## 1
Amino acid sequence: MDTKRLVILGVLFVFLVVLVIIFFNLGSEMKPKAAPPLPSDRIESSQGPAEPITIVLFFPSENDDLLHREEREIISESSEGEKAKRIIEEIFKGSKRGYLSPIPPETKLRELFITKDGVAYVDFSRDISEKHLSGSSAEISTIFSVVNSLSYNLKSVKKVFILIDGGERKTLGGHIDLTMAFSPQYDLVAN
């Protein structure tokens, strides 16, 4: 009977060893895989110094109801979304040539993203509405300063949807309907 016990113990031992080997081999397959590499445009931007690019911004003037071009150099960002944010930041800084600022200075950019369909969603703090100059001309200047600046500089942007404090508003100050996306209107730009 002792030899039977030894054989059974030997078989159990071999079986246990096989189970341990299987367990550790399966465990290595279940380990999380390494994160995929970042998109190539981000990798390229971090490899060398960013290049300055020239953009065109559109500002209203107190002399007429048109928007006026103003070139500015910014550091080129890797993604369209980051470039769009930089363009809005430059509009916030105001004109360097004496044109009017289309956006109240207290306004903040809450968020900005661009869809694959080419619609830029620009979400401003409520200051853009609460501290905005009254009148339809002022609203048109604000809206198309943003829309034209983004569309002109970013070929991926076909339309711009303006949000206020994270949601849709009917108007900016009571005149222009904000419930739709705006296409650029370059006929509002002075020659």
## 2
Amino acid sequence: MAIVYKGRVFSVEVETVRTPKGTSHEMATIRHGPCVVVIPILDDGRVVMIKQFRHSVGRDLWELPAGNVDAGEAVEAAAFRECEEETGLAPGRVEKVGALFPAPGYSDEEMFFFRAAGLRPPAKDSPHKPDDDEAIEVHPMTVAEAKAMVGRGDVVDLKTAYGLTLI
């Protein structure tokens, strides 16, 4: 096995793998730590969506808040943190509602989905702020509005489209 690329978010490994059929093939795998996807629900039932620019696709995307789990951090703690960092609202509680591998053909990334409720303004001394490379707009909307955005093609982010099926 050889690491051919190592970046801030992921690395790429190349190795020769023996398949169940007995043949050998060179395979590349993107190694990516776990991440969380948060489905923030306000007390009135609206879902909090965010809009942010994604360099990889060159445009603004509608998304649910999400982010990487830090080394040594529990996924539940990451859900609390990411919700506050990206929406400016601190959840009173989070509940795990699912998990999936978005691209198992070439990546080991696992996404953990959490419903967040009891959303309130964070403590004044909270350290949780958006990352320096993020410019996020927060948009609460009804669940029906968010799901209609998926149907119209306004939501093209797969984790968000899937996450909205969980509410």
